[in-house]
Amino acid sequence: MRLDKFLKVSRIIKRRSVAKEIADQGRILVNDLPAKSSTKVKAGDTLTIKFGNKTETVKINQIVETTKKSEAEDMYEIVDETYAEDF
């Protein structure tokens, strides 16, 4: 599955266009390598996403084409969540 579609379906990022924009800016790493929105992801991959002052690392548990909101959190688990210091 494409990275931008996974982020939307899993509801980590609400809109696919926003996921594409963030990925193409180089703010997402897949297995510690810079990723574009078209990068293919699979179960077991680790994503590191930089949102403003928050950096979130998630591990993909499963890939599902469509999902309900209540089941979306089963697609991944949060490994680490850090916040940058405010200056």
UniProtKB/TrEMBL annotation:
It comes from the Bacteria. Keywords: Protein biosynthesis, RNA-binding, rRNA-binding, tRNA-binding. It holds the Pfam family S4. One of its GO terms (molecular function) is rRNA binding. GO terms for biological process: rescue of stalled ribosome. The keyword Protein biosynthesis applies. CDD domains: S4. Coiled coil: none annotated. Residues 1-64 form the RNA-binding S4 domain. The keyword Protein biosynthesis applies. Belongs to the RqcP family. Associates with stalled 50S ribosomal subunits. Binds to RqcH, 23S rRNA and the P-site tRNA. Does not require RqcH for association with 50S subunits. Key component of the ribosome quality control system (RQC), a ribosome-associated complex that mediates the extraction of incompletely synthesized nascent chains from stalled ribosomes and their subsequent degradation. RqcH recruits Ala-charged tRNA, and with RqcP directs the elongation of stalled nascent chains on 50S ribosomal subunits, leading to non-templated C-terminal alanine extensions (Ala tail). The Ala tail promotes nascent chain degradation. RqcP is associated with the translocation-like movement of the peptidyl-tRNA from the A-site into the P-site. HAMAP family: RqcP. This is RQC P-site tRNA stabilizing factor.
